[in-house]
Amino acid sequence: MTTIALITLGGTISSESTGAGLGVVPVTGADLMCHEIQAWVPETNLIAHEFRLLPSASITLADLLELHAFVAALPGDVDAVVVSQGTDTIEETAFVLDVLGTAARIPVVVTGAMRNRASAGADGPANLVAAVLVAASPDARGMGVLVQFADVVHAARWVRKASTFHVDAFSSDPLGPVGLVSEGRAHVELVPRTRPVLAAPAHAGARIAHVSAGVSDDLALLPALAAAGYDGVVLAGVGGGHVAADAVRQVALAAAVLPIVLCSRIGSGPSPTATYGYPGGEIDLLARGLIPGRMLSPVKARLLLALLLGSGLRGDALRAAFDVHAR
Hints:
Elements: E1 2-10, E2 15-17, E3 24-26, H1 30-37, E4 44-54, H2 61-72, E5 80-84, H3 90-99, E6 108-111, H4 124-136, E7 146-149, E8 152-155, E9 160-161, E10 170-171, E11 179-182, E12 185-188, E13 208-212, H5 224-227, E14 232-237, H6 248-255, E15 260-264, H7 282-287, E16 291-292, H8 298-310, H9 315-326
Parallel strand pairs: 1-4, 1-5, 5-6, 6-7, 13-14, 14-15, 15-16
Antiparallel strand pairs: 2-3, 7-8, 8-11, 9-10, 11-12
Helix pairs in contact: 3-8, 8-9
Pfam family, one: Asparaginase
Organism: Sanguibacter gelidistatuariae
GO molecular function, one term: asparaginase activity
């Protein structure tokens, strides 16, 4: 029998109404969730761990570092881990755990729900069952952290939430998912590229601003971020990662005192490094010291920058390490 630790963090999958007109909040813990799905996975021994009971917007990087350490300390008879949480930051949780190598020893699968427990057609139990099936599958070993949602299996590197309401809420554009669940069986077929593992940083206190560029945006706030106590910036430029010509001076002033990672605000596809040479294009911005975000979304680049700064990296060492883990 396979033993799987179900670690709950809260979110919609744990949420119920607290009264008429008051909305739903996370209230249901791991024990009840294990009990509800155990009959659907009779060959699995589920062990409940209520790690947090939070809306996912309130999960912190410190929480995720603690979760990484918690998984690493699980006893040797635990064969895999399923993490349940709110969908709003699933992509961030999965990415951090993946970068830290949380799934190096045993499979780790993250899931959640779009419909709360009181909704008609609540999807939480089905997602939990499918996540358990994926975690228990031999195919999940060596895959890094995975996200299972609506019977689709995604790699942590590429997954992102793509809908605020649809039950099939996640996408892995532009490369696509790595597997699926069908007829009670997980099929994980496409193997992600192996990447270097980043050691967990000494602290999680780095403050990283996420700034998105747009039409008529001079980005005048950027130079003030250092004085406001920020340690770094992720700049999500338009298109492949561009800003207006009028904003270049402000970007350059900020880049002289803070590490700035340049990403695309689009959410799908790589940020180019050698195509556009006009003022505010990526060639111009990278020449001014910005760090290329490569294929990472702004939210994932922000977390990687925080992890590296928390590890004490600065200057050229920071730039080199970011490039290694962003590719």
